[in-house]
Amino acid sequence: MAETPTSPRQVKLRRCSILSPTLHMRAPRDQRESIQKQGIDISRSVMKIDIYESLFQNTIAGSIEVRETQGLAEYFPLTGTEFFYLEFATDYLGEERVFSRLFRIRRVGDVSFPKNEERVYTIDLVTPEFFESLSSRVLKKYTNISCVDAVKDVMKTYLRVPDKKMADTNFEESSGVLSAVMPNYTPLQAINFFTTLSLTKATPHESNFVFFETLDGFYFTSIRKLILDARSIDDSKLPTFSVNANKLTGAPTISERDAYNTIIKLHQEQTFDVLVDTATGVLRSKMLHLDFFARKWNEEDSRYTETFKKTTHLDTYPVYPDNFDQSVGRNVKMFIVPTNLSSANSKYSASVGETPVPQRLYESIVLRNRQLKELRHLRTLLEVPGQPDLRAGKVVIINYPSSRALQDATGNPSMSVVQTPTPYHSGRHLLTSVRHSLRLVSLGIMEYQMHIEAVRDSFGAPLIGYTEDSQDVDESGICV
Amino acid sequence: MESGPLSHQLGFDGFIWFIGVVEGLDDPLKVGRSKVRIFGWHDKDTDSLSTDDLPWAYALVPVTHAAQLPTYRIGDWVVGFFLDSRLGQQPIITGVLPAIQQA
């Protein structure tokens, strides 16, 4: 029988079942095989499903809200050894998109009894890889290996991630090689160790690698690549959310694409904070790397203005005016790390046959600190209709109406508000997290909404800069 | 490695100390380094993590005898700390634990 297509915001729950390793042993003989293979379908009891993915979390997580009268929690019983299989389909712009994922049940939440035998509770889900990571340890030496190869090895050897969830295009090549002994790390800690040290192959190097999972699979990529990949896509093909409710609700009909790009709820967080940026080294910092074995040390001053010009951003202009960072002392944020850069390259070491890999922790730390923090300058939380293509790591356009007459050459203060997008905040945003939220509306049909977090690291219009060197602060904090 | 970001400022990320066993003394640089298998950090199984694979541990020497190389032996238990804190790649030995003869 042909299925009725779903409307925007709606999905069909294809399968929603719990697989228990021992339940079939207690089932009637004729049902044992099917229960072992298919598990027990609980889709009629599921009220709500939430799946959460984020650039800053290694694996996806989820929860399901169950309302039932069978006492599933005691029937299985649910003890954390079970798996939960989810499969849902949605019609999106004329084609059906199907998503499926196996989760591991982590725990059952508090149970409430609203009436009679009915009980309501939440089942928390993690991915099998997350559970595998907590259950194993990496005790191994990696020698002369690139970060991306080390990450792939940990994924295959310790997390047993299937190839289909490790698409080559999702793994970016990293620069250089390193040697390290994994000192009893969990596999995900080992991956994060390599992620922190990763530099982009392209120069000037950038250091904003992230390891994360979406419903599509795992990613080991720099934020630089996420931004550059989206640059090849025309603005008209990117999901565009316009903060202008009147335009949508005033129209008698809207296109399907516009319906998907409707904003249900929006909250703009002004996370820009000059005090935090000053104290954490976003504006200015110093790296001191010591090679005690060679009795050598180096120090490098790093400024936001200079880094911005060499690194990749969503838009054109920095969020701080040019040279504003010169008003911050060089020693306000200092990084001090050990290295073996000089001793590893010493002639004496080479003469006795020892050629260790130079430790280049100092190359990534300053950049990574700045690049990951500057991403948080403008954060927008949106509630939108569920779109199959919206994932953590994707780029979207958000347009905010201007609240002042920026283009008014006459300077007329009584001029009405200009309803064009503000050049500062409007434009491309990076999705850092997505919560897929499915809520039951009728039997087998769920409403699909997304709660997305979009961030922006730059402006679409320039700020007036400061004159270079005019306000530089020396090490004693005195303007020179 | 515990969760939470490191400050990457020497001395600010905690003093992570360890106890380990000296397994190798054949330091090509002849500066008193040794291969130390650290309890809880390195696998006790030498097949999965051989002595050669262990990181070199540097020995602190007394300020009064800075030119003197350490004289510990293979099998000695040592105490030390990681110069790079939770990253655990640069062990420094501060001393040898005494032991009594076993029958």
Can you give a write-up of this model?
The complex is a heterodimer of chains A (480) and B (103). Chain A is α+β, with helices and mostly antiparallel strands. Chain A is 20% helix and 33% strand. Chain A has helices at 32-38, 72-75, 128-134, 147-157, 187-197, 223-231, 245-249, 256-260, 274-279, 304-310, 341-344, 347-351, 361-374; strands at 10-19, 40-41, 46-54, 61-68, 83-92, 95-108, 112-115, 118-126, 141-145, 178-181, 209-214, 217-222, 240-242, 265-269, 284-291, 296-303, 334-338, 378-385, 395-399, 427-442, 445-456. In chain A, a hairpin with a 2-residue loop joins strand 20 and strand 21 (445-456). Chain A is globular and about 75 Å long. The N and C termini of chain A lie far apart (80 Å). Mean pLDDT of chain A is 86; it is low at 405-409. Chain B is an all-beta fold. Chain B is built from no helices and 5 strands. In chain B, strands 1-2-3-5-4 form a 5-stranded mixed β-barrel. Chain B is globular.
List the helices and strands and how they pair.
The complex is a heterodimer of chains A (480) and B (103).
Chain A: E1 10-19, H1 32-38, E2 40-41, E3 46-54, E4 61-68, H2 72-75, E5 83-92, E6 95-108, E7 112-115, E8 118-126, H3 128-134, E9 141-145, H4 147-157, E10 178-181, H5 187-197, E11 209-214, E12 217-222, H6 223-231, E13 240-242, H7 245-249, H8 256-260, E14 265-269, H9 274-279, E15 284-291, E16 296-303, H10 304-310, E17 334-338, H11 341-344, H12 347-351, H13 361-374, E18 378-385, E19 395-399, E20 427-442, E21 445-456
Parallel strand pairs in A: 13-19, 15-17
Antiparallel strand pairs in A: 1-2, 1-5, 1-21, 3-4, 3-20, 4-8, 5-6, 6-8, 7-8, 9-10, 11-12, 14-18, 15-16, 18-21, 19-20, 20-21
Helix pairs in contact in A: 4-5
Chain B: E1 17-24, E2 34-38, E3 56-59, E4 77-82, E5 91-96
Parallel strand pairs in B: 3-5
Antiparallel strand pairs in B: 1-2, 1-4, 2-3, 4-5
